[in-house]
Design goal:
By secondary structure, this protein is an alpha+beta fold. It is 55% helix and 16% strand.
């Protein structure tokens, strides 16, 4: 018999025996590690993480394991404890978040688990994942102080910048006119909002950027900034561009962007146009 074939066949045979044995060992190790996590949570009274662990599929696997069936009544007792503690914490959390926001002069509105600050800043708290999402950015914390700090930072980026509503709408009209001229479109013809947003951001760049397009020279203008600036323009009530043109946003779903409209509502917008002011 060829030695190489002999060795390969027996190697495969042993692997076939080992594989299910190793899988069972790995499964047992996962259950043991899970129980160790529960023990650590109890040691520091981390009821938030413990609640998450006890609601997981692994907890169910532990309860179904014959050798660990004593865990079932213990888990039930712990679920009742963590549920009670989380509910208490939720009320304290809302009070702390409201107080800290007021101290920071942050105009927050809480409809747990969601909260809003002015127009264009939206957050959601996820106790089970111990995270807070603010305008789609995830903060890996549910500490009210960190939430207020992060929200205040975003509020400063969006609202504490110098803003001239007249100059803003005039700059939008300039970009709109440029696109219409390039496409030989009639005045008042809607421009796709994604194309418009790209062209508008390009219009904000300095001459130095076009000479050397290094990222350090790029002037960012996030969709959140664009959305909030639109709202600030609408809220200013100045009536349109310097030459009497009125901004219109067209709602829709295809190739859209989520923006704040003249009613202060976040909507999917597909097009933008300027129309002559009617008397």
């Amino acid at each position: 018999m060829d030695t190489e074939i002999f060795l390969q066949e027996n190697q495969e045979n042993l692997n076939n025996i080992l594989r299910p044995f190793q899988q069972e060992l790995n499964r047992g190790q996962r259950l043991a590690d899970f129980l160790k996590q529960c023990v650590r949570c109890l040691g520091r009274d981390d009821f938030l993480q413990l609640e998450e662990l006890l609601s997981s599929k692994t907890a169910q696997n532990v309860e179904d394991e014959e050798a660990l069936n004593e865990c079932r009544p213990l888990f039930q007792t712990l679920r009742e404890y963590t549920s009670e503690q989380v509910e208490k914490y939720r009320f304290a959390f809302i009070e702390d978040l409201s107080r800290l926001a007021e101290e920071a002069e942050l105009p927050i509105e809480i409809d747990f688990p969601r909260f809003t600050v002015l127009k264009g800043i939206e957050g959601e708290i996820d106790f089970s994942k111990r995270s807070t999402t603010i305008n789609k950015k995830v903060l890996k914390s549910i500490d009210p102080r960190r939430i207020v700090t992060a929200t205040l930072r975003l509020k400063k980026q969006l609202y504490d910048r110098p803003f001239d509503p007249q100059a803003f709408v005039d700059s939008l009209y300039a970009t709109y006119t440029k696109i219409n001229q390039q496409e030989d479109a009639a005045p008042g013809h809607p421009v796709g909002i994604q194309q418009f947003y790209l062209e508008y951001v390009i219009s904000l760049q300095s001459k130095a950027f076009f000479i050397n397009m290094d990222k350090s020279k790029f002037r960012g203008y996030s969709l959140d900034q664009f959305s909030v600036d639109l709202w600030r323009y609408f809220a200013a009530g100045i009536g349109g561009t310097s030459n009497g043109m009125m901004l219109q946003l067209r709602p829709g779903r295809n190739n859209s962007l989520w923006l704040i409209d003249s009613d202060g509502e976040r909507r999917q917008i597909t097009g933008i146009s300027f129309q002559e002011k009617t008397i």
